[in-house]
Write a structure and sequence with these properties.
Blueprint (H helix, E strand, L loop, with lengths): L4 E3 L9 H5 L5 E4 L2 E4 L9 H5 L5 E3 L3 H7 L6 E5 L3 H4 L5 H11 L3 E4 L1 H15 L13 H10 L13 H13 L4 E6 L3 H8 L6 E4 H10 L31 H4 L16 H9 L11
Parallel strand pairs: 5-6, 5-7, 7-8
Antiparallel strand pairs: 1-4, 2-3
């Protein structure tokens, strides 16, 4: 499987903006072109965001989804709660209607996996013997720690990410033969999907979903919402707050005494936090 983030060399204009902004310095100049070092990349997508020539791209998995949408196939879409930021004004019920028209047999909210993950983390916190716990929800941050700060890897929560939890729940409920396709905002989820292929069959971005709907001639704004009963596990609740900064922490605070919660955005913020934390020194407060 190819890396989630790559360079179209003919479009690179040698501005080096991606080199300056890459938080892990995973870009090198080869033949005057800025190429992604695949083994070093954590797929945070920062280079895609800042490239003025759009030479940095996220892997296109649309051909894979079309092959899965064969007649008689059982596909379940796992929709990240951040869909509200991309498809403004479109509820998950309307997205479900559009996806079912594309050929999906089931639709569910990834937020259900977030709720289960939060419950497992809450239980684990009372037994955690380390002075620090790092959420496993973001694959880019997890990869950054394992590749660049391995001394802190033992602080990563052993609870699987909301996507992995949700996918396992879906296959347990719907049957192992169902194919789970995730739709979300992040390129790094493609890495997670590649590694957890037993549960997550494919991970696509919301941009991919936009292209899929366009290919099938579907205008999401004109779709009628499906009933809540059409969603696997029904509508989610507090798990929908995960995309909001501090949203996961808010699901954990009840009953969590003597624990300090910290919310961060981006690899650089995580690096600064870890730089100020000695992994070999225990602390009374968490």
């Amino acid at each position: 499987m190819s890396s989630p983030v790559y360079t179209i060399e003919n479009e690179c204009q040698d501005c080096y903006k991606c080199v300056r902004h890459c938080p892990v310095k995973a870009i090198r100049i080869v033949n005057a072109k800025a190429s992604v070092i695949q083994d070093s990349c954590v797929a945070c997508g920062e280079c895609v965001k800042v490239c003025p020539a759009h030479a940095k791209k996220i892997r296109n998995d649309l051909p894979s989804i079309e092959s899965l949408l064969a007649p008689g196939a059982r596909l379940c879409a796992s929709i990240a709660p951040s869909h509200t930021g991309y498809f403004r004004g479109a509820s998950v019920n309307r997205l479900a209607a559009a996806l079912m028209k594309c050929g999906f047999s089931h639709v569910s909210e990834t937020a259900h996996g977030a709720e289960t993950a939060s419950g497992n983390v809450s239980h684990l916190l009372s037994q955690w013997r380390f002075p620090l716990m790092i959420s496993s929800a973001c694959p880019a941050c997890v990869d950054y720690i394992r590749k660049y700060n391995p001394d802190y890897a033992r602080f990563i929560s052993p609870v699987p990410s909301p996507l992995s939890v949700h996918s396992a729940l879906l296959k347990e409920s719907l049957g192992k033969d169902v194919k789970v396709v995730f739709f979300g905002p992040c390129a790094a989820k493609k890495n997670e999907s590649d590694r957890d292929s037993a549960n997550v069959d494919l991970a696509l971005t919301f941009r991919d979903l936009d292209a899929l709907l366009l290919r099938h001639g579907i205008n999401i704004d004109s779709e009628e919402e499906v009933d809540d009963s059409a969603l696997v596990f029904g509508p989610a609740e507090e798990g929908r707050f995960y995309p909001i900064e501090g949203g996961m922490n808010d699901t954990l605070r009840n009953g969590a005494e003597n624990i300090r919660f910290v919310s961060l955005s981006g690899i650089d913020s995580l690096r600064r936090l870890l730089d100020g934390f000695d992994p070999d020194v225990s602390q009374e407060s968490r």
